[in-house]
Amino acid sequence: MSFELHAQLAQDTIVIGDLPLCRLLLMNDGQYPWCILVPRVEGVREAYELDREAQDQLTRESATVGKTLMALFDGHKLNVAALGNMVPQLHLHHIVRFPTDAAWPKPVWGVSPAQPYSEQDAQALKQKIHAALSPLIAITD
């Protein structure tokens, strides 16, 4: 089966690249450093639907992305969530939080409309995250 990113994720994010299991996306909202991991496995809605090896790989990739984002942005707290209420395709949000952010201490959803990055800022952030995760990540266009 081929992998296809859910249309809503494609609309709301910027592709950073591919880790061994997951596509890494940047949420197009400049209010928070926010990445999303999407396993490139068609038809999976829940982590338990992945085979054991893929579950372990997802855990490793999530930990690596979380640690990297916290180091890059000197975060106060990392929120990791797999909701899927609006987008059924399995995806894990990794959101770096600060006591000064727009939603603190509440969850980020529904607090304020997304503030998209400029093209220049999006590309710079994409390159910054990609460089920090090298050589684990392959850049995609």
From TrEMBL:
<feature type="domain" description="HIT">
    <location>
        <begin position="36"/>
        <end position="104"/>
    </location>
</feature>
<dbReference type="InterPro" id="IPR036265">
    <property type="entry name" value="HIT-like_sf"/>
</dbReference>
<dbReference type="InterPro" id="IPR026026">
    <property type="entry name" value="HIT_Hint"/>
</dbReference>
<keyword id="KW-0378">Hydrolase</keyword>
<protein>
    <submittedName>
        <fullName>Diadenosine tetraphosphate (Ap4A) hydrolase and other HIT family Hydrolase</fullName>
    </submittedName>
</protein>
<dbReference type="InterPro" id="IPR011146">
    <property type="entry name" value="HIT-like"/>
</dbReference>
<dbReference type="GO" id="GO:0016787">
    <property type="term" value="F:hydrolase activity"/>
</dbReference>
<dbReference type="Pfam" id="PF01230">
    <property type="entry name" value="HIT"/>
</dbReference>
